[in-house]
């Protein structure tokens, strides 16, 4: 499995795990500036755990200021994850 959720995250899998990957780009001072690569953020036995961690990660990295913003983000991203996974 190799599912692109958005421009920042992908989900891959092997026989035992689902992996959440963050897509990154090498900086100007690297040997290959601009090259895209991915880093495994976590390994999960169940897709539900991956989805939960992805949502929490997005909230932690955001500049959300209100409870309403958290709820809106959770609802929107839950729908994105479910529709992306169901489409594959």
Short synopsis of the structure:
The protein is an alpha+beta fold and 88 residues long. 40% of the residues lie in helices and 28% in strands.
Which helices and strands occur, and which strands form pairs?
Blueprint lengths: L1 E3 L4 E5 L4 E8 L10 E9 L2 H15 L5 H20 L2
Antiparallel strand pairs: 1-2, 2-3, 3-4
Write up what this structure looks like.
This protein has 88 residues and is an alpha+beta fold. The chain has one domain (2-86). It is 40% helix and 28% strand. It contains two helices and four strands; from the N terminus they run ββββαα. A four-stranded antiparallel beta sheet has the order 1-2-3-4. A hairpin with a 4-residue loop joins β2 (9-13) and β3. The longest helix is centred in the last third of the chain and has 20 residues, at 67-86. The chain starts with a strand and ends with a helix.
Structural class: alpha+beta
Counting DSSP E segments of at least 2 residues, the number of strands comes to 4
Mean pLDDT: 88
Question: Tell me, what's the shape?
Answer: globular
In total, the number of domains comes to 1
Give the fraction of residues assigned to helices.
25-40%
**Number of separate helices:** 2
Poorly predicted segments = none
Query: Termini, distance in Å?
Result: 9 Å
Major sheet size, sense and barrel closure: 4 strands, antiparallel
């Amino acid at each position: 499995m190799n599912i692109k959720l958005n421009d920042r995250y992908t989900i891959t899998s092997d026989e035992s795990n689902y992996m959440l990957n963050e897509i990154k780009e090498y900086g100007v001072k690297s040997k290959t500036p601009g090259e895209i690569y991915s880093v495994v953020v976590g390994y999960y036995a169940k897709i539900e755990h991956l989805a939960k961690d992805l949502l929490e990660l997005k909230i932690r990295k955001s500049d959300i200021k209100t409870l309403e913003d958290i709820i809106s983000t959770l609802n929107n991203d839950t729908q994105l994850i479910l529709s992306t996974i169901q489409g594959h």
